[in-house]
Design goal:
Layout (H helix, E strand, L loop, with lengths): L1 H15 L4 H8 L3 H13 L4 E2 L10 E2 L4 H9 L4 H13 L1 E3 L5 H7 L6 E7 L5 E7 L4 H12 L24 H4 L6 H14 L3 E9 L2 E10 L2 E10 L6 H14 L3 E5 L5 H10 L4 E5 L1
Parallel strand pairs: 8-9, 9-10
Antiparallel strand pairs: 1-2, 3-5, 4-5, 6-7, 7-8
Helix pairs in contact: 2-3, 6-10
Length: 286
Amino acid sequence: MLQDKETKVLQIITSSGPKLPTELTKAVGIESYIASAILSTLVKNGHLHNSSRKIGSSLIYYIDGQEETVRQMLLKELNVTELKALETIKKMRVALDNDLYPQERYLMNDLKDFVTQLKLKTDDNQEITCWKYYEVSDAELMNIVKSKLVPKKEPEAVKEKFVPIKEEFIPIKEKTLRKKAVTLSGFGEKVNKYLQGIDADTTAVIRSKPNELVSLIKIPTIIGSQSFMLFALNKKSITETDLSKIYVESSKERKPVLLVVVNELGSKAKKYVEKHFGDVLKIIRI
């Protein structure tokens, strides 16, 4: 009896493509726990495969040759940051661990239906980790890895002509060195005042520290309420490390980011935002 059900499951997936467990329970007319047992057995015996990523709370089940259909199904589930990470590895074809930003390496673990993590050994027996886009053949993989491991020639040092500069020391009064710091209460009040001004509704506070507030908010717009992940940072300057952490954390929530800061972002930080966030991050200076 159970074998008949297994045969029917295989026939359905073979004829009509990859399926979620709920689709199979309806098609075969079985309870969900029986479908789970059948699918588990078929995967264990090598008759079926399951996706690494889930749609909702369910894996996709498929047979050999249906991988591309599975990837198309999963593409619709990726958020903006995941799509950007996937586009990066697609362009690079093969990436060593140090070719990727920390948050990109983190996201690779959620993209294993599109990329494969490999451990390779070099001629001098050193182990390296790399990520391969699914379209890359073994021959292309080895060629790219070899090219990445070839030491780059250091450019010859350019001789510079130094002209002695007369140094002039001007005494600085102590009071010119003192800058008025933004107090915590003042910063917190400014953040709250800004949120009140845009009629934002805080739905959840994720983290509240003396110089940091992370929360989920909703902002009314002409097309309805828009959800954001708020990061309010009371820092003199925002670094790439700060942005990297924001990137990873907001990726988990799959929400656009509202970044509230006290000073304008530096050039490196602006480039980082442009490359990794694009339109999904809005910066407010208060």
